[in-house]
Amino acid sequence: MPVTKRTAPPRRVPPRSIPGQTSLDDLGTPLTDVTFCVVDLETTGTSAANCGITEIGAVKLRGGRCVGTFQTMVDPGTGIPPSITVLTGITEAMLVDAPTINAVLPSFLEFLGDAVIVGHNVRFDLSFLRAALEETDRPPLTNRSVDTCGLARRLLRDEVPNCKLGTLATHLRLDHQPSHRALDDALATGDLLHLLIERAGALGVTGLEDLLLLPRMAGHAQAAKLRLTEDLPRRPGVYLFRGRRGEVLYVGRATNLRSRVRSYFSSDTRRKTAQLLKEVVRIDHQTCGSPLEAAVAEIRLIHEHEPRFNQQGTTWRRYAYVKLSLGERFPRLSAARVVKDDGALYLGPVPSTSAARRIIEAIEVVVPLRRCTGRPGRTLRSGPCLPFQIGVAACPCAGDISEEDYAAIVATAERGLSGNPELLLDPLADRMTRLADEERFEEAVETRDRADALATALNRRDRIDALRRSGRLRLVVDGSSVAEFLDGELQGTHPGDPVTEEPLSHQPVAKERADELHCVAAWLQRDAHRIVIEHCDGVLAEPVRRPPSFRASPRARPGSGAGR
């Protein structure tokens, strides 16, 4: 896949999967291998809540041939309205010796098995079946279902005045004609299913998964662009929507490329998606060995191309750091866009400079570091700054604090940022609670947001540092796939992939690497139960102490301090 270089730093893109022959997994479940069970019910009314089943008809189909039929009358336990008798021809006299639904269900369920249920307006039939199963204390159906009415609207809407079964049977000259009797209607629906599958083949539908998705694409303005998805495999990977000039419009990842991309034409109704599909002219893809590799590849490609329709992952250039300038005589806090080798203590990266300032404000509430930006000399050259005058900060410019006393203040901030976050977070939590008790809710919310920003940054930093300390790491996932890392960075998920030798830097993680390392750390935390460590040069462990969460509960009163 050709890649256009932009201004982003060079990235190590996970290796592509080794090309090979297309497998059955790429095709999904072939329709020729699927067993369909066409079901039709006759009932005493339209509501499953207060009406009963009078007749069940079913036809089992496989490979285009009928392999079995099922038909029985059913005693509904209630009378039959005259209008239903006129419609179906079923009278109460015909049901005198009929079995109840409780007696019929075992044999019907055995006939059905695990087949895909087919019906014309199948939701109607399923509603009665579900009601009958619930009434007889049986487990619900787990079979997948296909609605021939929805398929007909998608494939035949320009040929027929309506999609009623009788209309379709007459127009298409089906071998069996419906008669409002269960078995006749099921046979007619089976004929219709075979014809619709033939029509769907012209749209590239060869598997069951695509057939199930097809009705939801009815009337989509960009349905013609479904042809762009025909070559997509059913494997993990990343996909790139490209525009008229070849530019990348959007990058996404999926565990099943074909199903995910085709879903844009059905269930996704967002305005942005409609505009994206309008502009796309080509869909490229890159298969990956695992969902993790796909997630990492997505981040790297977003950083490289910065697609217009992507939101997450495109703002990494705006990341910032919280800097404690330990190299100065009187250190202070500031927001920095880059990390320098100046002896300072850095925290981050955080999403933006404003987020860095919010963290700085949280720390300054606890530790009275100087807020003036000048360079105080050994003698007093200027007056005290305003924060000192209102009693919220120390000010060396005023000459009332020695270097030793100020160093003690700095040491508290340094310990809080390095390995003892409780020194900073506990006073913030106490302040938040006190303000809430005093009903100063706006100030409490402000304190909570600042504390949460600080706790989040510390937690993310600890997770990444724990990952980077692992050195060379080799993991076995689900007993089969392999993932190799170096200082937390994914090297590959295939045996024999090259591993780049780069020494671990003790500086904070670079902005361009932060998203990727967060992704890997989240994956390790989420899927730890699936992982076996085969090799680890360093130490891979969660920090013993984790900063508390200050995130507000949706139902919590603002400033209440809940969630500490």
Give an overview in words:
The structure is a single chain. The protein is 36% helix and 16% strand. It folds into 4 domains: 29-210, Nucleotidyltransferase, domain 5; 220-314, GIY-YIG endonuclease, CATH 3.40.1440.10; 321-457, no CATH class; 470-536, no CATH class. The strands form 4 sheets. It has a 5-stranded mixed sheet with strand order 3-2-1-4-5, with helices on both faces. It is elongated, with a radius of gyration of 33 Å. By secondary structure, it is an alpha+beta fold. Helix 5 packs across helix 7, helix 12 (353-366) packs across helix 15 (422-437) and helix 16 (441-468) packs across helix 17. It has 17 helices and 15 strands.
Put the structure in a nutshell.
With about 575 residues, this protein is α+β, with helices and mostly antiparallel strands. The protein is built from 17 helices and 15 strands.
Offer a few descriptive terms.
single chain; 564 residues; alpha+beta; Nucleotidyltransferase, domain 5; GIY-YIG endonuclease; 4 domains; four-stranded antiparallel β-sheet; 15 strands; 36% helix; disordered N terminus; disordered C terminus
